[in-house]
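Ticket reopened. Same input as before:
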Amino acid sequence: MINESTIKEIISSQGEDEPEGEDMSRRSFLWMGAGAIGAVYIGAIGYPVYRYLATPAERAAQAAAVTQTTLDGADKLPVNTALMFKFGTKPAMLIRHADGTFSAFNAVCTHLGCTVAYDTAAAKITCACHGGEYDPTSGSNLAGPPPKPLTRFNVEVQDGRVTVARA
Amino acid sequence: MDASLSQEPNRGRRTLAAAIYGWVDERLDLTGLIAHAREKAVPEHRHSFWYYWGGISLFFFVVQVLSGILLLVYYRPGPEAYESVRQITYDIQFGWLIRSAHSWSANLMVLAVFVHMFSVFFMRAYRKPREFGWWTGLILLGLTLVFGFSGYLLPMDDLAYFATKVGLEIPAAIPLVGTLVTEIVRGGPEITDVTIQRFFALHVVILPFLYLPFLAIHVWLVQKHGNALPPSEEAKPEPERRSIRFFPDFFAKDMGMWLLSLNILAILASLFPWQLGPQADELAAAPQGIHPEWYFMSQFQILKVFGRWFPGAVGEFLGIGLFTAGLIIWAVIPFIDSRSASGSRARTAFYIGLAALLGLIAITIWGYWEL
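Engineering reply: fixed in the latest deploy. New output:
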């Protein structure tokens, strides 16, 4: 004899089939509820863990957000030399040209991220990693693999202090 | 037929999943594994509640591993140890929560391990063929306590410093080799950066390296022998015993316990965050009411009391001797109560267990009372 519970048993034994009727929609509702609660747990654990691991990156992003930095005594930099300094989180270079004027650049090579150097003899910015060369006044890429010019900063000299700011 | 045709896209997805499952199954025999898990039965009776405590211990161990790995990201052993824990606790976002979860979970794990051990004891689950389960369990308990002791020093605040100082006096009291062994563990006569470095190596490399194989054997033995029946169930004729399938029934309940444990841990770790005391100072006096963690309280109190009753090295020797003797009896209990039938030996074992449980609780309470 087939009664209601036998039918239910047959339906549930075919577990893989699509939900049909009141019972099956309750099942899918429960699954959805369990999934939602699971997602809340994953979020409640995942969010603190993410923020915990991301703390240094977030702090660095704050530090990188600086718009200017002041270099005390940099006006006494000898001509045809460069001073390396930190702008935000990245290395930067201040160059004093032969005519006494200043240029400042982000000292990260636009090719693959090596720190560039000022070549006094050739009066050029060079990268030791893959032989890239840049113009020391404009920062434009002259030779080698660099695809873009170096990022140029504005330089202002006032009362013996050199202020470097984002252009 | 019509219904299945209308579900074409779903069918396609299902066939792909089936194909992937088939590919893996052919190589790893997943079907056999699932069939085995469904066949495996767990006894169901009025003492079944105690079957969950090994799993709960395992859950807290997993939390220890995961939160420990997270702490490892910022912790620096050596001279900067205190500063790095200060940063984790007060500077790094949610660092307080990760550290608090690690500390609370450590305490809950020790508690769960003790409950597990005593429930196994009173179910007489150490009897043949489960002796190795009992012994590997005792080794795991010992390693767990050393985990707790070594981890306690790592923040290098004043409590950590003095707890370790006092704790290391215990191995130092072992006749003949005590001083030498202790100085090697400590890296000299005093607790310094060198000690932190050693305890760190012990805590995160050596102990896990020792712990995991014993854990694997322990869990494998449970799988091999199945859950032990308590004597009251053994007395019943076979047809009257009830059981549930390991998968999915027991497994689901097990996971329910894990979820409950997670919630309790979350409440404790977030509402009662673990604190960091002032930095250890070797010239500062020990803070008032200094005492070890609760799971070392009974040993601490026995040493204290024996020192009062038997002044000098004698008290220390007797105190350590008492604990060692107790531990040896505890380890050979499968030999004391070796018969399957209940009898005088089973009663002896029961009274030993009762004395151990009540003794530990009473001495621990006494220890806190005297603070």
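The first strand of chain A starts at residue 68 and ends at 72. The interface with chain B takes residues 16, 18, 41, 44, 48-49, 51-55, 58 of chain A (CB under 8 Å). Please confirm and we'll close it.
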